C-alpha cells in the first residue's frame, strides 16, 4: 500500500495531466499542433528540397532492365539514398506516352518508380512506401512539374512532395531526376491523417472510348459501370466504398447540394492552378485523366498529378491542335475547354453554374496572382531552384537537351508564366475576354505572346538529338557500345 502525505494531490495531478493529454490528442489540430502523420521522416530527408540528393540504383543488368522497360515489370534492386542502403526494392519504368516515345526513339532515360513494399511486406523509407523519379521528358527546364506542385501547395491543395536527385546506376552517373512522392498510403496518411479515406487514379482503357467514368459523370448505380475508377483504386475498396463514390457522382450530376458530395473549396483551388498552368493532358483536356480522386465520408476531392506537358505544351490535348502562344497564353479562365469537353466535365462545369462558387474561383485567381506572381515569389522560387540544379543539369549525361537549351527553357517558362499572370489579371479586370466566344469576337484584346516559342520548353527534335548522348551513358554502365 502506497503511503505519502501528498498522495491525494499526486493522484489529482495525475488525473488532470491525463485529461489534458487526452484533450491535446483529440483537439490538437484545432489548437495548432500538427498531426504526427503530417511530418513523416521521409518528408525531412529525401524531400528536403533545399538541396540535391543522391540516389544510387544497384542492379545486376541495367542493359536488360532498359531493354525491357516498356513492360513496366518490377525488378529487385538495392537503392542507396543519401548514403543509406535499402535492399530488395521494386524498380520499374513508368509513364504513358513518355514511356512509349522513349522506346520509340531508341532512348534509355525513362522515368522510374521505386516501391519499398513490392517484395517485402512493410518495406518503407522512413514511412514512405513508393516514390518516382521523373525524367523531365519534354521539359528542358526541368522545372515544370516542380513549379506546378509548388503552386498547388501554395494554394493549399494536397500535392506530392518533390525534390531533385542526382541518380547514379552501379556508381555511374545517370542524370538529374525529380523525386516525387507517389500518392498511396504514406501520402494519404500525411495529408489526411491515419483514418484517411479512399484514393483512386482514374484512367481510360482507350482514348477513343467515351470514358464517362474517368470524366466523373454519373452513369448508373452499378460499380461495373465505373472500371476507369474502381480498377484503379490505390487501396482495397468494399462495395460500400464504391457506393459512396457513385452516390457522390450522382449528386454531382444534379448540380445541387454539391457540398454534400464535393470538397468544393479545395476543388476550386485545384482548378485555379490547373487552368493557370494550361495543362490539357488532364481532367480539363481531351484525355480527361492525370489526376487522383480522393473520397472520404462520401465527399470527393481532385488532386494534382503529371505536369511535364503543362504550360501549353500539350497541343494534342485540343480537338484541333493549337500551338499559337497568343491563343494558349491568353486562354480563357471561364471556359478553359471547348464546349464539348466542358459539358462532359461535371466536376468543373456543375460547380461553375453556381454564382457563389464562380465568384470564389475568381477570388482564388486574385490570391494566386497577388500573393504568388505579382509580389515576386514565383520568380524567386524559379531562379533559386534553377541555381540549385544548374551544376547538375550541366553535367547530366542523359539529358534530353543541351545546357544552353535548358537555360533558354527556364527563361521561356518564366516569360510564359508572367505573361499568363498578366493575361489572367486582364481577364479578372474585364479588360480581356474570359470566354472562348468573347476572345473569338474580340481577337485583339489579349497580351502579346508572339515572341514566345513554346517548343523551347521541349520538343520532339530534342528526343532525336539526345540519342547519342544517352547511348554513351548506357554504354558506360553496361560496358557495351550501342
TrEMBL record:
GO molecular function: kinase activity
InterPro entries reported in the protein's UniProt record: Spore_coat_CotH_CotH2/3/7
Transmembrane helix as UniProt keyword: yes
Domain of life: Bacteria
Pfam families: CotH (PF08757)
Keywords: Kinase, Membrane, Transferase, Transmembrane, Transmembrane helix
Segments traversing the membrane: 6-27
PANTHER family: INNER SPORE COAT PROTEIN H
Name the UniProt record assigns to this protein: CotH kinase family protein
